[in-house]
Amino acid sequence: MPGIVVFRRRWSVGSDDLVLPAVFLFLLHTTWFVILSVVLFGLVYSPNETCSLNLVDHGRGYLGILLSCMIAEVAIIWLSMRGSILYTEPRDSMQYVLYVRLAILVIEFVYAIVGIVWLTQYYSSCNDLTAKSVTLGMCLERGWGTFRGVCITVLCVFDPTGRTFVKLRATKRRQRNLRTYNLRHRLEEGQASSWTRRLKVFLCCTRTKDSQSDAYSEIAYLFAEFFRDLDIVPSDIIAGLVLLRQRQRAKRSAVLDEANNDILAFLSGMPVTRNTKYLDLKNAQEMQRYKEVCYYMLFALAAYGWPIYLMRKPTCGLCRLARSCSCCCLCPSRPRYAPSVTIEEDNCCGCNAIAIRRHFLDENMTSVDIVYTSCHDAVYETPFYVAVDHDKKKVVISIRGTLSPKDALTDLTGDAERLPVEGHHGTWLGHKGMVLSAEYIKKKLEQEMVLSQAFGRDLGRGTKHYGLIVVGHSLGAGTAAILSFLLRPQYPSLKCFAYSPPGGLLSEDAMEYSKEFVTAVVLGKDLVPRQVEK
């Protein structure tokens, strides 16, 4: 449904979204009408008290206002329930009913001010406690409570580009091409500014860097371009998702009812068709691959640090971390890490690095040595760690998934970006935020010579000849897959395990090439990897 146009401006609410608010206000005003009627006509007031007589006159006027509100709200309910999502003509007169309701609201404010004047004149001298209580209720609850509600509602549904949107639509009808282009440009700029403000409010508690400001602009223009020609409101998206789900269920039922197809079921863990292939765990090679997938998932989980550790160990995890952690302000002389471990930007207690180490100790993986841990978290700069697994004879790079609002900005920067792989033209494209994150990690590995340290960790045990594994989950999975492209020229035997990589991560030709060294793992109907599934 399109946004309603009131005062020659489009608002971020549809004319059929007003049913529930109007019902709520109608019930509230009905309650006040009954209470005020009982107070005014059911109680006896002293004829000698001027304040009481003024209250009765004021209250009768307020009863008229409440009755007018109830009539207007019934009209809003009736109009809002007419038509359908796309058939809006029966609701065209809604704006005029809203004008009437707003006029009544102005009168309410005037009566609230009159009530305040009454309180200042008679509150101390008036002996009628009932009169005082009723007037206070009308002024504070009805008058200023309504004022606060209106302010909050206007802030929620105000569209900064609403007037430009209406002008653009009117100009399109008159077919003025140059004027249309200028208005379209203004609309896109205004929507981008609006999205930028929303993102800044969402991340108001984080320190802003240049890369974060660039991400604001990238995401704002992405959303502005997507919603530029769509006259929809937030409730449309919810209704669309519900209808899409209903259509999907109906379509699946129809497919299953057909007798001339091979579709058996649409359930996870069951064959969809008669040709569905499963891992043959009796095959030694496939069993080994399955075990590898399960094994390296532990490395991907460990990258989340202390939050995932406490979630997996809710009873004893905190005690284990507390024994190992030592805040610099409490125990500054107590060493927290082995000298050979490089830690970057962990918190004062070293909780993330300790949690990664405890994660492997709890799994009896004592042969895993942590070489480098980066807890630095910024837009396009994802935390990661590097470990040496002596049992498997592998060096493992594990990249953290989405855990902070900055990671969410990286996720949302979804433009296509060329993969910076030497010797290949620009047909290999990837998710921009994850390409930039992969470039950051590669640069960090080279500057700190992390992989050289890892492969030279214990030459006596042959670490120089260990293989390289790159793993990650969610955002980390996408970054790991792209990082594998960047590192493969130096490490041709590299393998990547990407757990729930985001959909739309790579262009088709890059995806085909990645099959040689990337194993993507998708659990059931996970939305993240299946969001652009054909």
TrEMBL record:
Keyword Membrane: yes
Topological category with respect to the lipid bilayer: Multi-pass membrane protein
BP terms from Gene Ontology: arachidonate metabolic process; diacylglycerol catabolic process; retrograde trans-synaptic signaling by endocannabinoid
Coiled-coil residues: none
Cellular compartment(s): Cell projection, Dendritic spine membrane; Early endosome membrane; Postsynaptic density membrane
Self-association and partners: Interacts (via C-terminal) with CAMK2A; leading to the phosphorylation and inhibition of DAGLA enzymatic activity. Interacts (via PPXXF motif) with HOMER1 and HOMER2; this interaction is required for DAGLA membrane localization.
Record protein name field: Diacylglycerol lipase-alpha
Native source organism of the sequence: Semnornis frantzii
Gene that encodes it: Dagla
